[in-house]
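Translate sequence into structure tokens.
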Amino acid sequence: MYQSKKIAFLFLWCGLFSFSQGKFVLQERDKDRINFKLINNLIVIPVEINGVELSFLLDTGVSKPIIFNFLNITEELKINQTEKLYLRGLGEGESVEALISRNNIFKIGNALSISQSLYAVFDPDLNFAPRLGVPIHGIIGYDFLKDFVVEINYASRYLKLYTPDKYKTKRCSSCEIFDIEFFNNKPYINAVVTMNNQEIPVTLLIDSGGSDALWLFHDEERGIDIPEKYFDDFLGRGLSGSVYGKRAKVDGFSLGKFKLDRVNVAFPDSTSISFARKFKERSGTISGEVLKRFNIIFDYPNRKISLKRNRNFSDPFYYNKSGISLEHDGVRVVKTVEQDRGISRFQSVNESVATSSLMSSGSYKYSLAPSFKIVELRIDSPAYRAGIEVGDVILNINNKHAHLYSLQQIIQMFFDEDGKRIRLLIDRKGVQKKFEFKLESMF
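Result follows.
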């Protein structure tokens, strides 16, 4: 029988019984390079657990590694289910049930931890794969980053790991080094937000596991007010459920000498962030849409972070102008003429589900292709006014089969220029319908 207990957020037990337990070390050399995928501003890295190769999000906003047990791979991973507990995070729902498993072998590149704890979550709704269009098996943060100096090159999409006592700081006149502080094993940085003609000092969680630019917590005493121009929107899903709030723009955002103009900001509803506000000094979060504009060196052992602007720095900040939130939703059967080679499994741009032939009948071919479903729809958005509904499956977009795109390519179309015309053929409970709308700026 498992012992049940409540725990606070993700600040979890982290004992080290010997030098190697719960500690990552580089094998044979003092540095290593790991390539990663950048999907919707999120870093996806290869992680091997107990000999099984998986894909994890590198998330500075979490303490212990979490694996999503909906994948039914716990038996293959040989996870020892030793203790039941409950995790609490962002979202309007309740705590989620998890099992703690100890003494697992983690391998990330050339870094190895031979006695690593992890948490297996059973909630089937905690599944990042449909939202990103690629398999995501879990998330990892502090337990990995704390043992190295970690360079994150967002521009070239690689990590470099350095053994801290062997690392030599590089000379960099265009870099700036900041102090970071930790609360519950999560890193915080001081910055300045410009809004309503005021420069407001803020303390922000550094969250590489979030795809937005900034989140701010409404706080009248500190002068953090919601701008006059805003719109209500779905902000994402946290550990404890969906998060809704208001989206707007701030006039400016500064990290030392680095200044950004007209930055996207979200103000999450207070019910979704009650647990996040346990750290009273926290004003919000800085996430992937800002972080990707820098090449970053995290030095957790010395509580430092170094930033250098990269080629993404001056890119404008765009919003999804359609109002559609889209997910990968399994597969559907596609009927095409035999001569159409466009859905060959070797030509598919979809990493999640490559199309593959089921059978041929005369001049037709039947194949499995990714299905893209609308899961959230912003009220009074262009898509909403056109008659689109939650649950609709996109078959064609601008007269091209949807499955010939990746999920991210379709979503990117919704961030296009004002006035861009979007034509959709959708499946609604077995009935095909056509819709058309133009992208509109909310400001």
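Note: The first strand starts at residue 4 and ends at 6.
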